[in-house]
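Hey,
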Amino acid sequence: MTPASQLRVLRRLTSIELVGSLMYRTQFAVYMVSTVVSIMVGLFIWLRVGESGGDLPVDREFIVTYYLMLAVVRTLVSTWHSEFLAQVIRKGELNAWLARPGSYILNLLANNFSEKIVKMSTILPMLGVIWWFYRDQFALPTEISRWLLFIPALVGAFVLEFCLTTTIGSLGFWMDENSGIARSRHVIAMALSGELVPLALYPAWATTFLDIQVFRFTMSFPLEVLLTDLSSQQLVAGFVLQFAWLVAIVMVCRFTWQRGLHAYSGIGA
């Protein structure tokens, strides 16, 4: 299929998936409440640490803005299909897609996009309420250059996250159960992506490792580009590292998926 044909298929699949997602909007609302609560717990903890005289390398304004924007970035870049994909492979449900012109990856993307639309429409009003109480400490940059750099960093973060999740899901071609790997990866990512704790709050001795490891570029890096005063050298180094990780992870994802399809033997085949 040509790229134009794939985009048309993706658009149609997204429309279909969106209808299905809207049927479960109450469940999504409950999930997004839990997401907001978990992020706000981190916000309240670090605000309390600062109020108690803790020597933090960032100010109150950064903490408030970071955590509110973290909720948005997390919703936009997160993926969740690794266990679902493995289940589709194990049950032989992938068979139907082997006879279709479009890849099943397009269906995964369509599901992700449709659920993001529903989740964003749910989480933004919740964040608006929290913003009202902290509006004096919430400060987004006004420089257009930061937003122009934030967008490609965000897109790169999503592609990285999607390919990492797809790679783990593709292990279902060879493994009966991949949930342990998926959950372990999630826990590690929470600690190293800036979701659990902003990377700026880690001790100085961990800085070098944190700056180069892959999970930084799935969530923290877009926020750093938007909210911190990175030098030109730091920006270039960051985007070069993100691109390097993108190339590496996309190649691993593509290799794993294609090898898996060659080895695949669906139920009834």
